[in-house]
Amino acid sequence: EIVLTQSPATLSLSPGERATLSCRASQSVRIFLAWYQHKPGQAPRLLIYDASSRATGIPARFSGGGSGTDFTLSISSLEPEDFAIYYCLQRSEWPWTFGQGTKVEIK
Amino acid sequence: EVQLLESGGGLVQPGGSLRISCAASGFPFSSHAMSWVRQAPGKGLEWVAAINNGGGSTYYADSVKGRFTISRDNSENTLFLQMNSLRPEDTAIYYCAKDVIAVAAQFDYWGQGTVVSVSS
What we know:
The complex is a heterodimer. Chain A is mainly β.
C-alpha cells in the first residue's frame, strides 16, 4: 500500500502567520491527493481535492500544490479556527491511505 | 440538510461480531458512493472501506479485508459495516462519509461517529 508521510508532526505558529504542511507519498499518486482538517469532537472537513482544487466553501487562504510524490498544503494567514490536525489522503491506488497527520497548534 | 447518523456501536469481546449502520438523509443516497473511516484512541484517521453508489463494488483497507463487509440498502438510505473476528486494535470511532458522487475520496459530509470497543 502507498504510505503517506506528513511533516512536521507539529507546527507551532501564531495567528496571522503562514503555515506550510508537507505530505510525501512512497510512490507516485499523480494528483489524486486530498487534504482534510479535523478538530477534536467534530467531523473531519474536506479542504482540498485532486492536489490543488478547493472544496466548496473553503476560504481562499487554503491552497494545495504538488504532484507525484510531494504535496503541500498552505494556509496563507492563520485564523484562530484553523488550529487543528490536518491529514492528507491518497486515492490513486487501493487501498486508500491517510497520512499520520500534522497538528497546527497555537504558539 | 444532509445528515448521516451512525448507530450500533458498543463493547464487544475479541473474536466477536458487530454491525454498525449509518442512516442517511437530505441527499439522493443511491447516487453517491460512501465510505467508513475510523479513528483509534490517540491515533489518526484510517480509511476502512468504500462502496459505490449501486453497491456492486466494494473496497477495503488491508487491515480489515476478509473480516469486514461494507454494504448498503438504497431503499432504506442506509449504509452498513459488518465487522467479524474483531480485534482490540479495531477499537475506534467509526465515521460514515459521503463521497461527492463517484468513488473519489472527496468526503463532503461526515457523521458524528459511533464508538466500537473491543475488549475482554
